[in-house]
Design goal:
Order of helices and strands: HEEEEEEEEE
Number of domains: 1
Distance between the termini: 18 Å
Organism: Pseudomonas khorasanensis
Strand content: over 45%
Number of strands: 9
Strand order of the largest sheet: 1-2-3-4-5-6-7-8-9
Signal peptide: 1-22
Keywords: Signal
Helix content: 10-25%
Structural class: mainly beta
Radius of gyration: 14 Å
Protein name: Glutamine synthetase
Low-confidence stretches: 1-8, 14-25
Mean pLDDT: 85
C-alpha cells in the first residue's frame, strides 16, 4: 500500500509538472483543453486535472481498487499542500516543497500509509 501511494503521488506530481509527458501514447491516452487534462491509461485507470489559478483539482477512478477519488492541491510559492478523499472513505494529506531542483515530499493517509521522501531531477527519488 505504501508503494502504491508513493507511485500515485509521484505520477500526479510528474503529470502536473510536465503535462506534455502525460500525452505519450504508451503511458496514457489524454485529452486536453485550456484548463483540463483528462487521461485513461492502458490498465483502465482514469483521472483528470483541472487548473484554477494556483489550485489543481484532481479526480480519478482506480480500476484495481474499484474506487473513485478526488484531490485538491494548493500552491503557495515553493510549497504545495494537498488533501484527498476516496469513495472507500480513505483520506490523505501532504505537502511538497521545492528547493532548487529537489522536492521534499511528505504524506499520510487514514489507511495507515505515510512516507517522507526526496526527489531530484538528477538522481530521481
Amino acid at each position: 500500500m505504501n508503494r502504491t501511494w508513493k507511485c500515485l503521488f509521484l505520477s500526479f506530481g510528474f503529470s502536473i509538472a510536465h503535462v506534455a509527458s502525460a500525452q505519450i501514447p504508451t503511458l496514457a491516452s489524454c485529452t486536453r483543453s485550456a484548463n483540463l487534462l483528462a487521461c485513461v491509461d492502458a490498465d483502465g485507470n482514469a483521472y483528470s486535472v483541472n487548473t484554477v489559478g494556483n489550485t489543481l483539482y484532481l479526480r480519478g477512478f482506480e480500476k484495481e481498487g474499484r474506487r473513485y477519488w478526488a484531490q485538491t492541491n494548493s500552491r503557495f510559492g515553493q510549497l504545495t499542500f494537498f488533501t484527498g478523499v476516496a469513495s472507500n472513505g480513505e483520506a490523505w494529506v501532504g505537502y511538497t516543497r521545492r528547493v532548487g531542483w529537489t522536492t521534499i515530499n511528505r504524506f499520510s493517509s487514514s489507511g495507515g500509509s505515510s512516507a517522507k521522501f526526496t526527489c531530484s531531477r538528477l538522481t530521481g527519488c
